[in-house]
Amino acid sequence: MNKKNTPKLPTFEKSAKSYLDNTQLRRNIGHATQTIRGKRAGVVHELADWEELREAGSRIKAEVMNNLDQYLLQLEASVQKAGGTVHWAADGDEANRIITSLIKEKGETEVVKVKSITTDEIRLNDALKQEGITALETDLAELIIQLAGDEPSHILVPAIHKNRSEIRDLFRKKLNIEELSDEPAHLAEAARLYLRKNFLKAKVGISGGNFAVAETGTVAVVESEGNGRMCTTLPDTLISILGIEKIIPRWQDFEVFMQLLPRSSTAERMNPYNTFWTGTSPGDGPQEFHLVLLDNGRTNVLADETGRQTLHCIRCSACLNVCPVYERTGGHAYHSVYPGPIGAILTPQLRSPNDESAASLPYASTLCGACYEVCPVKINIPEVLVHLRGKVVNHQKKTGGIKQKTNPTHIGMKIMANAFRSRKKYERLQKMGRIGQKLFVKDGTISRLPGELSNWTAIRDLKPVPDQTFREWWRERS
Amino acid sequence: MVEGTIMSDSKETILNRVKKALGREDDDKTTTFKSAEIKRNYQQKSDLNREEILQQFAERVSEYRAVTEQIIEGELAGKILQICKNEGVEKLVIPPGLETGWTEGLSGSVSILRDEPEPLSKEELNASDAILTGCFLGVAQTGTIVLNAGPGQGRRALTLLPDFHICVVKQEQIVGIFPEAIRSLEETVRESARPVTMISGPSATSDIELNRVEGVHGPRKLHVLIIT
Predict the structure, then answer these.
(1) Hey, what domains does chain B have and what are their CATH numbers?
(2) Cβ within 8 Å of A, B 79-138
(3) Contact check, Cβ <8 Å, B211/A216
(4) Pick from A349, A354, A357, A336: which is nearest to A123 by CA?
(5) Which of these, A139, A188, A224, A369, could form a disulfide with A115 (CB 3.0-4.6 Å)?
(6) pLDDT tens for the 478 residues of chain A, in order
(7) Element containing residue A69 per DSSP (H, E)
(8) Strand partners, B133
(9) Among residues A117, A376, A110, which one has the least CA distance to residue A259?
């Protein structure tokens, strides 16, 4: 992530509170997530071999990560052989510089763009703007976000937090259309007319990509509207930026991922359009192709053996739609282009451990495990969440000085850890608890504890230590 | 070449970071893959018979709100003329290598725009009414049409800018499930490196309150003629 000029972001806990009060947002998100959830379950149920496909998807991605250096070199060679140029970007700033200079070489000041979270991650549009280049978002939802000066709130449907009348008002104002109803078909038609003329004149297109095949150099864009086809077909020059984790080894692997992705993402058997291109083709599409390979923190994720599986993500957003936390707070509370459960594990690993906002994300979960169940590449999100919570605590202890060392939570946890080490100690602590709790037990539960312990009881009741434990009962009888 | 030096530096940097992350030595020059065992024990071939595959294809293409018709080859030219009349198609684009018989009935009533010997401009394509193509494959399980820029399909822009796509699929071109299609495309990608486009219904968006709307940027209407 760009370290410079990044304002300090609030923690998830803080933001979630205010988003929970926004009933319109909760209604929009609730409706959306429930709808996609139901549809997804239907199309996934159709495939008897879904579990086998998930397992294969997970293994293929693990293979990529274990050999990433080799596959990157293979991809570079294949793209070059097919007539493309490959650029390497160690961080977002470098990627932005590469793309800016490529556009400037062409003498262009306007480019068309396909929705790409990777470009949102590196804030490409802002970087281009500073250099006098306008990047026009062509995905309907991204256009809405761009016109509103807003931030995306969902991986698949970034404007999910806006309803039709909000969008109509926005189009009336920004596209200068006086007569416009709030019918989705009419709103889509307005966007079609506005963007068509730009597609026809654009000389440079910018895209992300869903997959890049190491063996053949083929890049794939999976989409619904056709703006992806427009941007990757009509301009003379195409610049595609992909995170280094987007590699798949072989063309054959599409038989797995092209079954997993659409059903998990848009909850369709197949999304309307998939485009696969291999370098350049004479007389067909852009005659100049640049592929930018982006690290920007991904190798840090790779270095963590538990966290590594985060890089398997194919950005389907199924985990967002099943998450009870995301469903209530929406995407903005995560303060990252990657919201929801996958964002809660990806963002903290991409950003610096000193980023407090990112460090709060592993706690944005009840660890219910619904995300793991739907993940098409079997990322064990709860496992990584718990692992990252440990890392956060260790980092705080290391850097937090005396204040962290005397933090009552840490002291409490230390006592607990010690007690769990032996039965004797554990039973002694139980006895102490039984005496200590007497003041606080009311109607069989503890609803209020004093001092630091009140953090626990502020949001949940505590079950008291029973008068007699099972072991005590057993000893009494034998 | 200052630029070039900077770029190769980052390549070194990234590759070294990857090696370090994987616990390998910097000077590790290994080129062999630590290949994991990928079990491909998912379904490789449809278990439906030919007739069922045909029916499933027709059904699933229709579910995307595309129009689907099954006809015999002898009726094709007449059918295409009828569609053009019904839909008010005056300017029809055809790709190089399209079977000549398909457009036999059109002379006089529809003007035909050919993408050869000179390719049509983007503006000409944008101002046309429809495009008529064949295809490389159909996939029954997902109701998908696959184009690989071969004869009778043309370059990608042809099936993108006109608002109406008429696509002819021969029964023997329809495969059962997705892995069969991916295998058939190996040669296209490896040998000729031609682009592949997969089309499942007309262009659509669900970006506004998840209401599906047909037609944002690609063709808003798709008419599939299956020759049985």
Answers:
(1) 50-227 (3.40.50.10420)
(2) 119, 122-123, 126
(3) no
(4) A336
(5) A139
(6) 444 445 689 999 999 998 999 888 888 889 889 999 999 999 999 999 999 999 999 999 999 999 999 999 999 999 999 999 999 999 999 999 999 999 999 999 999 999 899 999 999 999 999 999 999 999 999 899 999 998 888 888 888 888 889 999 999 999 888 888 999 889 999 999 999 999 999 999 999 999 999 999 999 999 999 999 999 999 999 999 999 999 999 999 999 999 999 999 999 999 999 999 999 999 999 999 999 999 999 999 999 999 999 999 999 999 999 999 999 999 999 999 999 999 999 999 999 999 999 999 999 999 999 999 999 999 999 999 999 999 999 998 888 778 777 777 788 888 889 999 999 999 998 998 899 888 899 888 998 888 878 878 888 888 899 888 898 899 999 8
(7) helix A68-81
(8) B167
(9) A376
Q: What is the ipTM of this complex?
A: 0.94
Inter-chain contact A52–B41, Cβ cutoff 8 Å? yes
Question: For the purposes of burial, counting CB atoms within 10 Å of the CB of B97, is it exposed (0-12), middle (13-18) or buried (19 or more)?
Answer: middle
A71-298 has which fold? Rossmann fold (3.40.50)
| List of chain B residues whose C-beta atoms are within 8 Å of the C-beta of residue A195 | 217
Q: What's the CA gap between A24 and A30, in Å, rounded? A: 10
Q: Parse chain A into domains and list their residue ranges.
A: 9-46+317-406, 71-298, 422-477
Radius of gyration for chain A, computed over Cα atoms and rounded to the nearest angstrom: 25
